[in-house]
Amino acid sequence: MAIDLRHGDDVADLVARTEALVRDTVVPLEERHGGVIASVGEEGRVELQRAAADAGVLAPHAPREYGGHGLGMCDRAPVFEAAGYSLFGPLALNIAAPDEGNVHLLAEVATPEQKERYLAPLATGRVRSCFAMTEPAPGAGSDPSALTTSATRVPGGWRIDGHKWFITGADGAGFAICMARTSGTPGDRGGATMFLVDAENPGMRVVRHVETLDQSMIGGHCEVRFDDCVVGDDAVLGAVDEGFTYAQVRLGPARTTHCMRWLGIGRRAQDLAVGYVAERKVFGARLAELGMVQQLIADNEIDIEASRALVTRACWELDQGRSAAQLTSIAKTFVAEAVWRIVDRAVQLCGALGVSHDILLSRYLREVRAFRIYDGPSEVHRWAIARRVVKRHSH
Length: 395
Hints:
Family: Belongs to the acyl-CoA dehydrogenase family.
Cofactor: FAD
Number of strands: 10
Radius of gyration: 21 Å
CATH topology of the largest domain: Butyryl-CoA Dehydrogenase, subunit A, domain 3
Number of domains: 3
InterPro entries: Acyl-CoA_dehydrogenase, Acyl-CoA_Oxase/DH_mid-dom, Acyl-CoA_Oxase/DH_mid-dom_sf, AcylCo_DH-like_C, AcylCo_DH/oxidase_C, AcylCoA_DH/ox_N, AcylCoA_DH/ox_N_sf, AcylCoA_DH/oxidase_NM_dom_sf
Order of helices and strands: HHHHHHEEEEEEEEHEEHHHHH
Largest sheet: 4 strands, mixed
GO molecular function, one term: acyl-CoA dehydrogenase activity
CATH class of the largest domain: Mainly Alpha
Protein name: Acyl-CoA dehydrogenase
CATH superfamily of the largest domain: Butyryl-CoA Dehydrogenase, subunit A, domain 3
């Protein structure tokens, strides 16, 4: 089987324009705000996305009919990585979580009417969104079947009641995609339904921001309550009781695009560290000439290239229309841990400068730590990977 890792000229051009935007516009803004996305607010988001639109790089993932570039997963990878070179880059291109994953989900599952109402404005950044699945213990988390939020039929629609938390981007979102149980009981593998809930619905309330280690998600990570939240039948996304199936439509690609974006930060950390050790002199020589320093640099390059290769393989499977559950789990687990290693080594290479706020490495270290938990902790993915391997050998 021939393997061609080249991208078309249109993708290469998109990457080059993204790199220029990030270098000239996004990085200076990120440095002024210390990498804290809330500091730029909605006004800053709009300005960044206007700059991306002017550069012709906005929404590379969204369908063309809704203002995007319609890139498949393999072609997204270098563009997302280029955007991820700055914490603010994904926001600028409108490919940050959770909106990026929600665009993919709506494009695959929504009705034509729902696409016009929700996908069209989301794809081009006219609104933001959130994905409301995670609940406080003992509710849904790494095990979505523990879902406790309920949706009960009422005349003309549904009433949603439940308690969500760690809902990324909820503050300021124009709508939520809420996962609620429409049949069965917590622990059942089926019986969930997705609902589109407008932010103006009086039954949906953002309670508070959950203070977290990371600060690169606009709209924060929020606690949200659905109390007597009534929606119409037209709010059902997909089919009733098929929510868990649709979640897989979203989660496989979303895990992989997370890897693309964070790989960009890994490269940024490596560039900062190498730039420093190439100039810094100790004991009569440049740091870059010392063997232990060279090992750290080399290990970073190995992790970067291995991560990119795993992402490419998972993307190829997804582009073939396969679930790629095993490969996306492998890629997510490896890349989350590799990026942490890369940034940690970069901090070590830069010494006191690395832990200072004079450069953003300490901010990156805080940001990438959470990636080993989001979209499934490494331990859960390892458990799932091992189960699939054992099952394959049992037949």
